[in-house]
Amino acid sequence: MPGYPVSGPWPEIRRDLNKKRRPPIIAAVGYVGVDAPSVMPLKSGDFLVCDASTPAIRKGLTSAKALTAYRRLGVRIFSSPGLHAKVLTCSAYSWVGSANASANSEDNLNEASVRIRGADSDGIFDWANSLATEDIELVDTDIEKLRAIPVIRLGAGPRVRRRLRQVLPSSLTSLYLTETDGWPTAKEAKAVEGIRHRARSAALEAGLPASLEYLLFPIENRAVGLRSGGWLVNIHRGHVRRPGKVVRVARLPDADVIWYSVVKSPSRPPIGALRAIVPDLQPGFDFKKLTDVATIDRVLNLFR
Questions:
Q1: Residues 9, 111: contact at Cβ < 8 Å?
Q2: Which of the 8 DSSP states describes residue 110?
Q3: Pairwise CA distance, residues 26 & 69, whole Å
Q4: Rounded (5°) CA angle 165-168-170
């Protein structure tokens, strides 16, 4: 397992990247600076997964100019907001460490990376490959929009990360009440975990916490009507859960997955208090859409 020279890991990483007959690389690197194409030379057939969200571009953490240069080289680019990994991997080996793809990383910081081979590297490659999904791939028009975002450089000194939180809305025009009474099977749980990163990306892009809960609805209930931006209150085995905002609806072969960001409300009402407002919430109701604003307000007040 080679280490890294005193000058940092990038010269050794580039030694691998510049080999003529190397396998295609997946670079899952959180931030990509303007000098990234020279620091981390990728080529046609490689994948780059990075945080190309609007906040990352605006703060200058990821450079739209660098993404343009990579696209011109034939690199496929994927945006995963909130990504903090620093991994370069292929079918033969993986580099794992602390270095973002930037001149600042190479010239000013004390970075560390290790080169891994064998079964551990295979697992890293599979993980990185799972990030590069079609629904987060950036095309030329996407990158042009990123280039139009004004960059506001951060001043010197430590940065304080804003704590994201979901808050209860003052009012709503619609609210879904849902019912679940079971737990996901091992197969379902594995499938859901395989797509969690897409829901996390959607939440972070919307300025919401990436800590999400999910509901599974079988095929016969796919007309439930829940969509991104909607609000729900789930009742699980007779217990009222806290309200949440839907951030993504994903489709599995046998079910829909509703990902939602939960409000950290001070209390949860008993089911009896909720049934006093909505009497027909008896076991087996599955889901119900409320549209009467006065009724919705009374439900929301139970959580305040």
A1: yes
A2: -
A3: 17
A4: 135
Structure tokens at 68: 């343009």
Q: Give phi and psi for 94, each to the nearest 5.
A: -140, 140
* pLDDT tens column, 288-299: 999 999 999 999
44-99 pLDDT, tens per residue? 999 999 999 999 999 999 999 999 999 999 999 999 998 999 999 999 999 999 99
Please, what is the Cα angle at 219 between 213 and 221, to 5 degrees?
75
Distances (CA, A) of 82 to 56, 164, 199: 9, 12, 11
- Residue 17 and residue 31: Cα distance in Å, rounded? 18
Counting Cβ atoms within 10 Å, is residue 277 exposed (0-12), middle (13-18) or buried (19+)? middle
Name 288's bridge partners: 177
pLDDT, tens digit, for every residue of 106-146?
877 778 899 999 999 999 999 999 988 877 899 999 999 99
Dist. CA 271–CA 248, nearest whole Å: 27
pLDDT category at 164 given cuts 50, 70, 90 is low
Domains of the chain: 10-147 (3.30.870.10), 175-301 (no CATH)
∠ CA 121-84-11, nearest 5°, is 60
Alpha carbon dihedral 294, 295, 301, 303, in 10-degree steps, equals -150
Give long-range contacts, CB 8 A cutoff, 24+ apart: 68-72: 68/143, 68/147, 69/37, 70/36, 70/37, 70/42, 71/138, 71/140, 71/143
Residue 163's pLDDT is 57
* pLDDT band, residue 5 (cuts 50/70/90): very low
pLDDT value at residue 19: 92
